[in-house]
Design a protein that fits this description.
The protein has 328 residues and is mostly helical. It is built from 14 helices and no strands.
Protein backbone atom coordinates (compact mmCIF):
# COMPACT_ATOMS: atom_id res chain seq x y z
CA UNK A 1 0.00 0.00 0.00
CA UNK A 2 2.84 2.39 0.82
CA UNK A 3 4.46 1.89 -2.58
CA UNK A 4 1.11 2.30 -4.28
CA UNK A 5 0.40 5.59 -2.48
CA UNK A 6 3.88 6.91 -3.28
CA UNK A 7 3.47 5.97 -6.94
CA UNK A 8 0.08 7.65 -7.11
CA UNK A 9 1.47 10.81 -5.52
CA UNK A 10 4.30 10.99 -8.07
CA UNK A 11 1.85 10.45 -10.93
CA UNK A 12 -0.42 13.12 -9.46
CA UNK A 13 2.45 15.61 -9.39
CA UNK A 14 3.09 15.03 -13.10
CA UNK A 15 -0.61 15.38 -13.89
CA UNK A 16 -0.81 18.53 -11.78
CA UNK A 17 2.09 20.08 -13.71
CA UNK A 18 0.35 19.66 -17.06
CA UNK A 19 -3.04 20.70 -15.65
CA UNK A 20 -1.46 23.87 -14.25
CA UNK A 21 0.11 24.62 -17.63
CA UNK A 22 -3.25 24.22 -19.40
CA UNK A 23 -4.90 26.50 -16.84
CA UNK A 24 -2.15 29.10 -17.28
CA UNK A 25 -2.49 28.88 -21.06
CA UNK A 26 -6.23 29.47 -20.84
CA UNK A 27 -5.75 32.38 -18.44
CA UNK A 28 -3.27 34.04 -20.80
CA UNK A 29 -5.65 33.58 -23.73
CA UNK A 30 -8.57 35.36 -22.08
CA UNK A 31 -10.10 37.95 -24.44
CA UNK A 32 -10.03 40.67 -21.74
CA UNK A 33 -8.13 41.07 -18.52
CA UNK A 34 -7.86 43.40 -15.57
CA UNK A 35 -4.60 44.79 -16.95
CA UNK A 36 -6.28 45.82 -20.21
CA UNK A 37 -9.20 47.43 -18.39
CA UNK A 38 -6.85 49.28 -16.05
CA UNK A 39 -4.70 50.49 -18.96
CA UNK A 40 -7.82 51.66 -20.81
CA UNK A 41 -9.04 53.58 -17.77
CA UNK A 42 -5.68 55.25 -17.15
CA UNK A 43 -5.27 56.20 -20.81
CA UNK A 44 -8.57 58.10 -20.72
CA UNK A 45 -7.43 60.37 -17.89
CA UNK A 46 -6.48 63.96 -18.89
CA UNK A 47 -2.82 64.28 -19.93
CA UNK A 48 -2.23 60.55 -19.52
CA UNK A 49 -0.06 58.25 -21.60
CA UNK A 50 -1.50 56.23 -24.45
CA UNK A 51 -3.18 52.88 -24.03
CA UNK A 52 -0.20 51.06 -25.58
CA UNK A 53 2.26 52.73 -23.22
CA UNK A 54 0.15 51.86 -20.19
CA UNK A 55 -0.20 48.26 -21.41
CA UNK A 56 3.57 47.91 -21.75
CA UNK A 57 4.17 49.39 -18.28
CA UNK A 58 1.48 47.35 -16.53
CA UNK A 59 2.38 44.13 -18.35
CA UNK A 60 6.00 44.52 -17.25
CA UNK A 61 5.00 45.18 -13.64
CA UNK A 62 2.68 42.16 -13.60
CA UNK A 63 5.03 39.87 -15.53
CA UNK A 64 2.76 39.65 -18.56
CA UNK A 65 5.49 40.77 -20.95
CA UNK A 66 7.00 37.27 -20.93
CA UNK A 67 6.02 34.45 -23.25
CA UNK A 68 3.54 31.83 -22.15
CA UNK A 69 6.14 29.13 -21.45
CA UNK A 70 8.54 31.51 -19.72
CA UNK A 71 5.70 33.07 -17.78
CA UNK A 72 4.42 29.66 -16.66
CA UNK A 73 7.80 28.49 -15.37
CA UNK A 74 8.19 31.83 -13.61
CA UNK A 75 4.81 31.24 -11.96
CA UNK A 76 5.79 27.69 -10.97
CA UNK A 77 9.03 28.92 -9.43
CA UNK A 78 7.21 31.53 -7.38
CA UNK A 79 4.47 29.05 -6.40
CA UNK A 80 7.00 26.56 -5.07
CA UNK A 81 8.27 29.34 -2.79
CA UNK A 82 4.73 30.12 -1.66
CA UNK A 83 4.56 33.37 -3.65
CA UNK A 84 1.37 33.70 -5.68
CA UNK A 85 1.50 37.44 -6.21
CA UNK A 86 -1.15 40.07 -5.63
CA UNK A 87 -4.71 39.86 -6.87
CA UNK A 88 -5.24 42.35 -9.69
CA UNK A 89 -8.91 42.81 -8.94
CA UNK A 90 -8.86 42.78 -5.13
CA UNK A 91 -5.45 44.54 -4.85
CA UNK A 92 -4.33 42.35 -1.93
CA UNK A 93 -2.09 39.26 -1.81
CA UNK A 94 -3.81 36.25 -3.36
CA UNK A 95 -3.31 34.07 -0.28
CA UNK A 96 -4.73 36.79 1.97
CA UNK A 97 -7.94 37.10 -0.05
CA UNK A 98 -8.19 33.33 -0.28
CA UNK A 99 -7.84 32.98 3.49
CA UNK A 100 -10.45 35.67 4.11
CA UNK A 101 -13.13 33.95 2.02
CA UNK A 102 -12.41 30.21 2.01
CA UNK A 103 -13.47 29.32 5.54
CA UNK A 104 -17.04 30.51 5.18
CA UNK A 105 -17.47 28.25 2.15
CA UNK A 106 -15.70 25.35 3.89
CA UNK A 107 -18.00 25.64 6.90
CA UNK A 108 -21.08 25.75 4.69
CA UNK A 109 -19.90 22.81 2.58
CA UNK A 110 -18.81 20.67 5.55
CA UNK A 111 -22.08 21.14 7.45
CA UNK A 112 -24.10 20.52 4.28
CA UNK A 113 -22.13 17.36 3.48
CA UNK A 114 -22.49 16.03 7.03
CA UNK A 115 -26.27 16.34 6.95
CA UNK A 116 -26.36 15.10 3.37
CA UNK A 117 -24.67 11.85 4.39
CA UNK A 118 -26.70 11.22 7.54
CA UNK A 119 -29.98 11.99 5.72
CA UNK A 120 -29.52 10.71 2.18
CA UNK A 121 -27.85 7.34 2.85
CA UNK A 122 -30.38 6.09 5.47
CA UNK A 123 -33.28 7.28 3.31
CA UNK A 124 -31.76 5.53 0.30
CA UNK A 125 -31.52 2.31 2.30
CA UNK A 126 -35.13 2.65 3.46
CA UNK A 127 -36.29 3.23 -0.12
CA UNK A 128 -34.40 0.15 -1.36
CA UNK A 129 -35.68 -2.12 1.39
CA UNK A 130 -39.29 -0.94 0.82
CA UNK A 131 -39.24 -1.03 -2.96
CA UNK A 132 -42.59 -0.17 -4.60
CA UNK A 133 -44.13 0.67 -1.24
CA UNK A 134 -45.17 4.00 0.30
CA UNK A 135 -41.73 4.89 1.83
CA UNK A 136 -40.05 4.25 -1.52
CA UNK A 137 -42.50 6.46 -3.39
CA UNK A 138 -42.26 9.31 -0.88
CA UNK A 139 -38.45 9.24 -0.78
CA UNK A 140 -38.26 9.03 -4.57
CA UNK A 141 -40.52 12.08 -4.93
CA UNK A 142 -38.34 14.03 -2.48
CA UNK A 143 -35.18 12.93 -4.29
CA UNK A 144 -36.49 13.90 -7.73
CA UNK A 145 -37.68 17.26 -6.39
CA UNK A 146 -34.24 17.94 -4.90
CA UNK A 147 -32.54 17.05 -8.16
CA UNK A 148 -34.93 19.06 -10.32
CA UNK A 149 -35.22 22.30 -8.32
CA UNK A 150 -32.95 25.08 -9.63
CA UNK A 151 -30.79 26.63 -6.94
CA UNK A 152 -31.88 30.20 -7.64
CA UNK A 153 -35.58 29.26 -7.54
CA UNK A 154 -35.43 27.29 -4.29
CA UNK A 155 -33.23 29.88 -2.57
CA UNK A 156 -35.51 32.71 -3.69
CA UNK A 157 -38.54 30.75 -2.48
CA UNK A 158 -37.01 30.28 0.98
CA UNK A 159 -36.11 33.97 1.15
CA UNK A 160 -39.65 34.95 0.17
CA UNK A 161 -41.23 32.74 2.83
CA UNK A 162 -38.82 32.98 5.77
CA UNK A 163 -37.32 36.44 5.20
CA UNK A 164 -40.06 38.52 3.58
CA UNK A 165 -43.30 36.91 4.75
CA UNK A 166 -42.32 35.59 8.18
CA UNK A 167 -39.35 37.86 8.90
CA UNK A 168 -37.41 35.13 10.68
CA UNK A 169 -34.11 35.70 8.85
CA UNK A 170 -32.24 38.54 7.19
CA UNK A 171 -32.32 38.74 3.40
CA UNK A 172 -28.59 39.23 2.89
CA UNK A 173 -25.28 39.15 4.68
CA UNK A 174 -23.23 36.98 6.98
CA UNK A 175 -23.59 39.09 10.11
CA UNK A 176 -26.20 41.30 11.74
CA UNK A 177 -26.13 45.03 12.35
CA UNK A 178 -24.96 44.71 15.99
CA UNK A 179 -22.28 42.09 15.25
CA UNK A 180 -19.39 44.24 16.53
CA UNK A 181 -21.12 44.77 19.87
CA UNK A 182 -21.64 41.05 20.49
CA UNK A 183 -19.55 38.66 22.57
CA UNK A 184 -17.53 35.94 20.84
CA UNK A 185 -20.21 33.32 21.49
CA UNK A 186 -22.94 35.64 20.25
CA UNK A 187 -20.94 36.36 17.09
CA UNK A 188 -20.65 32.65 16.35
CA UNK A 189 -24.38 32.19 16.89
CA UNK A 190 -25.12 35.22 14.71
CA UNK A 191 -23.13 33.77 11.80
CA UNK A 192 -24.84 30.42 12.27
CA UNK A 193 -28.19 32.19 12.20
CA UNK A 194 -27.35 33.91 8.89
CA UNK A 195 -25.96 30.69 7.38
CA UNK A 196 -29.00 28.57 8.23
CA UNK A 197 -30.92 29.20 5.01
CA UNK A 198 -27.91 28.93 2.67
CA UNK A 199 -26.91 25.62 4.25
CA UNK A 200 -30.50 24.40 4.05
CA UNK A 201 -30.47 25.14 0.31
CA UNK A 202 -27.26 23.14 -0.14
CA UNK A 203 -28.62 20.19 1.85
CA UNK A 204 -32.00 19.94 0.13
CA UNK A 205 -30.54 20.25 -3.36
CA UNK A 206 -27.76 17.72 -2.76
CA UNK A 207 -29.49 14.85 -0.95
CA UNK A 208 -31.61 13.83 -3.94
CA UNK A 209 -28.86 12.42 -6.12
CA UNK A 210 -27.17 10.61 -3.22
CA UNK A 211 -30.48 9.05 -2.13
CA UNK A 212 -31.15 7.76 -5.64
CA UNK A 213 -27.59 6.51 -5.96
CA UNK A 214 -27.77 4.65 -2.64
CA UNK A 215 -31.14 3.12 -3.51
CA UNK A 216 -30.02 1.96 -6.97
CA UNK A 217 -26.78 0.39 -5.76
CA UNK A 218 -28.39 -1.32 -2.78
CA UNK A 219 -31.13 -2.81 -4.99
CA UNK A 220 -28.45 -4.15 -7.30
CA UNK A 221 -26.58 -5.74 -4.39
CA UNK A 222 -29.76 -7.22 -2.90
CA UNK A 223 -30.29 -9.12 -6.14
CA UNK A 224 -26.94 -10.92 -5.93
CA UNK A 225 -26.68 -14.66 -5.33
CA UNK A 226 -24.84 -14.38 -2.01
CA UNK A 227 -27.68 -12.28 -0.58
CA UNK A 228 -30.20 -14.94 -1.52
CA UNK A 229 -27.91 -17.55 0.03
CA UNK A 230 -27.68 -15.56 3.26
CA UNK A 231 -31.44 -15.32 3.44
CA UNK A 232 -31.81 -19.02 2.67
CA UNK A 233 -29.57 -19.80 5.64
CA UNK A 234 -32.04 -18.01 7.89
CA UNK A 235 -29.98 -14.93 8.75
CA UNK A 236 -32.00 -12.01 10.16
CA UNK A 237 -33.04 -9.50 7.51
CA UNK A 238 -31.25 -6.62 9.28
CA UNK A 239 -27.98 -8.57 9.27
CA UNK A 240 -28.41 -9.43 5.60
CA UNK A 241 -29.00 -5.81 4.68
CA UNK A 242 -26.63 -3.91 6.96
CA UNK A 243 -23.82 -6.45 7.36
CA UNK A 244 -23.66 -8.09 3.92
CA UNK A 245 -25.45 -5.88 1.39
CA UNK A 246 -24.70 -2.39 2.71
CA UNK A 247 -20.93 -2.97 2.97
CA UNK A 248 -20.80 -3.66 -0.76
CA UNK A 249 -22.98 -0.65 -1.44
CA UNK A 250 -20.36 1.52 0.30
CA UNK A 251 -17.82 0.89 -2.48
CA UNK A 252 -19.47 3.16 -5.08
CA UNK A 253 -20.51 5.59 -2.34
CA UNK A 254 -16.86 6.03 -1.39
CA UNK A 255 -16.22 7.32 -4.89
CA UNK A 256 -18.79 10.07 -4.40
CA UNK A 257 -17.55 10.96 -0.91
CA UNK A 258 -13.90 11.07 -1.99
CA UNK A 259 -14.76 13.03 -5.12
CA UNK A 260 -16.71 15.56 -3.08
CA UNK A 261 -13.55 16.88 -1.39
CA UNK A 262 -13.09 19.68 -3.97
CA UNK A 263 -16.71 20.64 -3.43
CA UNK A 264 -15.94 21.59 0.18
CA UNK A 265 -13.54 24.29 -1.01
CA UNK A 266 -15.08 25.31 -4.34
CA UNK A 267 -17.87 27.30 -2.74
CA UNK A 268 -21.48 27.64 -3.85
CA UNK A 269 -21.54 30.50 -6.33
CA UNK A 270 -25.29 30.89 -6.82
CA UNK A 271 -26.16 30.36 -3.16
CA UNK A 272 -23.45 32.73 -1.94
CA UNK A 273 -24.54 35.37 -4.44
CA UNK A 274 -28.25 35.17 -3.60
CA UNK A 275 -27.63 35.40 0.15
CA UNK A 276 -24.90 38.03 -0.09
CA UNK A 277 -22.19 35.82 1.41
CA UNK A 278 -18.65 36.66 0.39
CA UNK A 279 -17.40 33.08 0.07
CA UNK A 280 -14.73 31.64 -2.16
CA UNK A 281 -17.22 30.74 -4.92
CA UNK A 282 -18.44 34.30 -5.38
CA UNK A 283 -14.91 35.68 -4.91
CA UNK A 284 -13.36 33.43 -7.55
CA UNK A 285 -16.18 34.21 -9.99
CA UNK A 286 -15.53 37.94 -9.69
CA UNK A 287 -11.81 37.32 -10.16
CA UNK A 288 -12.34 35.28 -13.33
CA UNK A 289 -14.81 37.63 -15.04
CA UNK A 290 -12.44 40.54 -14.36
CA UNK A 291 -9.40 38.74 -15.78
CA UNK A 292 -7.64 38.40 -12.42
CA UNK A 293 -5.02 35.87 -13.56
CA UNK A 294 -3.06 35.56 -10.25
CA UNK A 295 -6.12 34.74 -8.15
CA UNK A 296 -7.73 32.55 -10.82
CA UNK A 297 -4.52 30.57 -11.31
CA UNK A 298 -4.14 29.95 -7.59
CA UNK A 299 -7.77 28.96 -7.13
CA UNK A 300 -7.98 26.61 -10.14
CA UNK A 301 -4.67 24.88 -9.36
CA UNK A 302 -5.78 24.53 -5.74
CA UNK A 303 -8.96 22.82 -6.97
CA UNK A 304 -6.88 20.52 -9.19
CA UNK A 305 -4.79 19.50 -6.16
CA UNK A 306 -7.95 18.71 -4.19
CA UNK A 307 -9.38 16.68 -7.09
CA UNK A 308 -6.26 14.53 -7.30
CA UNK A 309 -6.21 14.15 -3.51
CA UNK A 310 -9.88 13.14 -3.53
CA UNK A 311 -9.24 10.43 -6.11
CA UNK A 312 -6.33 9.10 -4.07
CA UNK A 313 -8.43 9.06 -0.88
CA UNK A 314 -11.18 7.17 -2.72
CA UNK A 315 -8.76 4.47 -3.86
CA UNK A 316 -7.37 4.05 -0.35
CA UNK A 317 -10.85 3.87 1.17
CA UNK A 318 -11.76 1.05 -1.21
CA UNK A 319 -9.49 -1.28 0.74
CA UNK A 320 -10.97 -0.07 4.02
CA UNK A 321 -14.61 -0.75 3.17
CA UNK A 322 -13.96 -3.98 1.21
CA UNK A 323 -11.21 -6.36 2.47
CA UNK A 324 -11.27 -8.15 -0.90
CA UNK A 325 -9.62 -5.17 -2.54
CA UNK A 326 -5.87 -5.21 -2.14
CA UNK A 327 -3.10 -3.34 -3.87
CA UNK A 328 -0.20 -5.51 -5.01
Amino acid sequence: MRKYVLKRILISIVILFFVAFIIYLLMRCLPTSYVENLARQKSQQPGSKSYEEWMAQLSASYGMDKGIVAGFFSWVGNALRGKFGDSWYYTVPVTQKFHETIWVSVYMGAVAMFFELIIAIPLGVIAATHQYHAPDYVISIVAIAGISLPTFFFASLLKLVFCVKLGWFDLYGLTGRTYNQMTSFQQVMDKGYHLFLPILVLIVLSIGSLMRYTRTNLLEVLGQDYIRTARAKGLPEKKVIYHHAFRNTLIPLVTIIGGSLPGLFSGALITETLFGINGIGFTSYNAMVNGDIPFSMFYLVFMAVLTLAGNLISDILYAVVDPRIRVS
